[in-house]
Design a protein that fits this description.
Bound molecules: beta-D-glucopyranose
Mean pLDDT: 94
Strand order of the largest sheet: 1-6-5-4-2-3
Distance between the termini: 30 Å
Shape: globular
Low-confidence stretches: 430-450, 792-799
Structural class: alpha/beta
Strand content: 15-25%
Largest sheet: 6 strands, mixed
Length: 799
């Protein structure tokens, strides 16, 4: 466990996520010896992450941009202006809210004209910091101080830009914000530095001083106004959130219908250098497309470039987005004049669309419609130029599926008819899957076996998991499907949850206890234990660097092993449907492909050291307001192509084993009790063989009934295997309905056993099992010993 290496990877990842949007006259990188005056109170409260469970990492240190610049010998900071801020902040301390939820921004210091004018005489460059924070249970407010600047921030930028010729604005935010002020005040340079974790300030200084050339690209589209995002109309409704924009999320909408509303397109970002592309190869095989591009650094700064591959599909009868990202690759650092060939492959499956109407003649199928498929590369969705195409003579069915997760009420959704926006009605479901399943359900309870099978027998391959599970009394199966937390004393202190052998009975049979905790931006341990704070999801997405994310998450995996944590509650894969979603910082992008590929890279890193990640929140956790109850009304197509897509990619690409459902409902059914979602789609279609857990204290429901935290039977029946969390699993402290439902039409023993088996199958693969049976790789045992982490936790079982 080399913390210096960990820190250097995090610093590099945070730097590679920084997006340079504007750099007039090549002001950046700052020349050696430049005098810099720093403005904005947020330079004194660098946001390492957002708030809520995804941000509560007790970092050993956080380097702010200011700290890092003070240590940067290349420039010198003006102390005069800093002193004014310091004195004002004494009088106006940081407002922490209640800690869990914080104000979206801090009060800004009013700036006097004189102070700025005199600073402009001492310094060549002004650096302005703007900060925003949002998170769990708190979306970003659309107005001033939230998505928009406050009057004080606006006037600060105006004053500074009027006195300084050279101005740089840094945006320390978890998600995009309003950018109209750029055209109004014309600062020389603008950078999204996101929330970069504990090394974020160093990363920003690396880019400002030119130690690293920026290579981040926008993971979201920046439009003129918040109302230009088609989802804004329905976002924030407390009862129902209609996904009327359907598949036209982010650039899919703007590139198809509203190009002129965009200020900075998806995938855009400047570098300190320039690049030339040469297409070396474009080949079409039965399975997909292979592209090879030679990228040459033609500028005068060593830099990396992100090659993005987009497709334009034929409009067909379904209507398509003007462009869809279908591949990307990042070069290594290219010296001036140096070239590198990058290869991108893209499967034909990823070029297909989902027909949820039957218009094409193929209802509920992934199809490739007849026509031209044109491919583009370039720096961003806008600047793409065509590199090749192929034509499909006939519409081809790629995969035939069934209707699932259908809407239960008709609603109007956006479609494209040859690039003209139209609305069509999404019809209600054509059959009731749930009832079909119910009518087939046997209702008898089976007797359990008498002879004992031990967990170790299963682990050794001497017994079947099914036989182990079959012998368990129903009460003990219930213990397996109930997790405990938060802060369970049975696992590492301060963590999110424990599951597995939570009763003496199960422990006697040798079932270990597993430990999980948040995620995604580092380990949350409420005990006060320190943990590394990583750059946030949006920042990592903007880096477009999969390998770097894998390496970073390998370090996180070691940190998990050090702390006896088996499962991370992350990464978060929800789509940035709207810039106001409070949890956007935890998630990656408006694009499902980028989201899926980056998350898969993170899981790969975790898997290298035997721990698991939990991809969450499955599906469509796209607003925090009323998150337990607001009903997402979403077409099957939008789910398949946008909201489920990132999860599908991760399940197929990286063998994810843990998934967390959401708090709320989609199409009337709480996701934690949706058979369509958790069985029909996830397991039957995608072949997922792991466990699904609920979000903490989530509700479930029977179709058409009110939700409740006791409705665990419906969850188990759908294969939401693990209910998180109870105070005491065996005592059924949550007073759930499992035992009363068992043997009725609501829940069979077989269903309960199936979920227990899903959980135990994952536990067999977790470090806790290796630890309990003394077969942990000594490297990890050593790691804990080296760090003095020898705490004995009760989940260690003596066989
Ligand atoms: C969040 C989850 C988190 C869980 C455990 C919930 O409030 O929605 O994302 O993993 O708490 O902390």
């Amino acid at each position: 466990m080399d913390y210096n290496y960990y820190a250097s990877l995090a610093r590099q990842a945070a730097a590679e996520g920084i997006v340079l949007l504007k750099n007039d006259g090549n002001l950046l990188p700052l020349k050696n010896g430049t005098g810099v005056a720093c403005f904005g109170r947020s330079q004194f409260n660098y946001y390492k992450s957002g708030t809520g469970s995804g941000g509560l990492v007790n970092a050993p240190y956080v380097v702010s941009v200011l700290d890092a610049l003070k240590n940067s010998t290349e420039i010198h900071l003006d102390s005069g202006i800093l002193k004014i801020y310091e004195a004002w902040i004494e009088e106006n301390p940081y407002d922490n809210g209640d800690g869990w939820v914080q104000p979206p921004c801090q009060k800004e210091m009013p700036l006097s004209d004189d102070a700025v004018l005199s600073a402009s005489k001492r310094c060549d460059v002004a650096l302005i910091s703007i900060g925003r924070i949002a998170g769990e249970e708190k979306d970003t407010p659309p107005g001033p101080g939230g998505f928009e600047l406050t009057a004080e921030e606006d006037s600060m930028i105006q004053t500074v830009c009027s006195h300084f010729k050279n101005t740089v604005v840094l945006l320390n935010v978890g998600s995009i914000i309003d950018m109209k002020w750029v055209a109004k005040y014309n600062p020389s340079a603008v950078l999204y530095i996101w929330q970069g974790g504990q090394e974020g300030g160093n990363a920003a200084a690396d880019v400002l001083t030119g130690r690293i050339s920026p290579s981040g690209r926008m993971p979201d589209t920046i439009a003129l106004n918040i109302d230009d995002y088609p989802s804004t109309k329905n976002f924030g409704n407390s009862i129902e959130n209609i996904y009327a924009e359907d598949i036209y999320v982010g650039y899919r909408y703007f590139e198809t219908f509203a190009k002129d509303k965009v200020i900075y397109p998806f995938g855009f970002g400047l570098s300190y250098s320039n690049f030339e592309y040469e297409t070396k190869c474009f080949s079409v095989t039965d399975s997909g497309i292979e592209v090879e591009v030679c990228v040459k650094n033609t500028g005068n700064h060593a830099s990396k470039e992100v090659v993005q591959l987009y497709v334009k599909q034929p409009q067909g009868v379904l209507g398509k987005s003007e462009r869809v990202l279908c591949g990307f690759a990042k070069t290594s650092t290219l010296k001036c004049g140096e070239s590198e060939n990058v290869r991108i492959s893209c499967s034909k499956r990823s070029l297909a669309s989902f027909d949820d109407t039957g218009k094409s003649g193929y209802p509920y199928c992934w199809i490739m419609e007849a026509g031209d498929y044109c491919f583009y590369t370039g720096n961003g969705v806008r600047c793409s130029h065509e590199i090749g195409r192929f034509t499909l003579d006939e519409t081809k069915v790629v995969e035939k599926l069934k209707s699932a997760q259908a809407s239960v009420k008709p609603f109007e959704r956006l479609v494209s008819r040859n690039d003209i926006p139209e609305y069509e009605t999404v019809l209600v479901r054509d059959y009731n899957l749930w009832q079909r399943i119910c009518s087939n359900r046997p209702c008898k309870m089976k007797k359990h076996n008498d002879g004992k099978v031990y967990f170790n027998d299963v682990r050794n391959g001497n017994a079947k998991l099914e036989d182990f599970v079959a012998q368990l009394p129903a009460e003990q199966l219930c213990v397996i499907v109930r997790g405990e937390g938060m802060n369970s004393p049975k696992v590492t202190a301060g963590t999110g949850g424990a599951f597995g052998g939570l009763s003496p009975y199960l422990q006697e049979l040798g079932v270990p206890i597993a430990c999980c905790t948040d995620g995604p931006s580092g380990l949350r341990m409420d005990s006060g234990a320190k943990a590394f704070s990583l750059p946030n999801g949006t920042c990592l997405a903007a880096s477009f660097n999969r390998e770097l994310s894998t390496s970073l998450f390998e370090c996180l995996a070691l940190e998990m092993r050090r702390n006896r944590i088996d499962v991370l509650l992350g990464p978060g894969l929800n789509i940035h449907r709207n810039p106001l979603n409070g949890r956007n910082f935890e998630y990656f992008s408006e694009d499902p492909f980028l989201t899926g590929m980056m998350a898969a890279a993170q899981l790969e890193g975790l898997h290298r050291h035997g721990v698991k990640g939990t991809i969450k929140h499955f599906e469509a956790n796209n607003q925090e307001y009323e998150r337990h109850f607001v009903n997402g009304v979403i077409s099957q197509r939008a789910q398949r192509e946008i909201y489920l897509k990132s999860f599908e990619i991760v399940c197929r690409e990286s063998g994810a084993k843990c998934i967390m459902s959401t708090y709320g409902p989609v199409n009337g059914l709480w996701t934690s009790s949706s058979y369509d979602l958790l069985t029909a789609i996830l397991r039957d279609e995608w072949g997922f063989s792991g466990l699904v857990m609920s979000d903490w204290w989530a509700h479930g429901n029977e179709e058409g009934e009110e939700p409740s935290r006791q409705e665990i039977a419906a969850m188990i029946r759908s294969q939401n295997d693990l209910y998180m969390v109870n105070l005491d699993a065996e005592a059924n402290s949550n007073n759930d309905n499992l035992m009363s439902a068992l043997g009725t039409v609501k829940l069979t023993l077989a269903e309960l056993q199936r979920s227990a088996a899903n959980i135990l199958r994952v536990i067999l693969e977790l470090p806790t099992t290796e630890m309990c049976y003394g077969c942990e790789n000594p490297m990890y045992t050593q790691l804990r010993e080296d760090e003095g982490f020898t705490e004995i936790v009760s989940r260690v079982i003596v066989d």
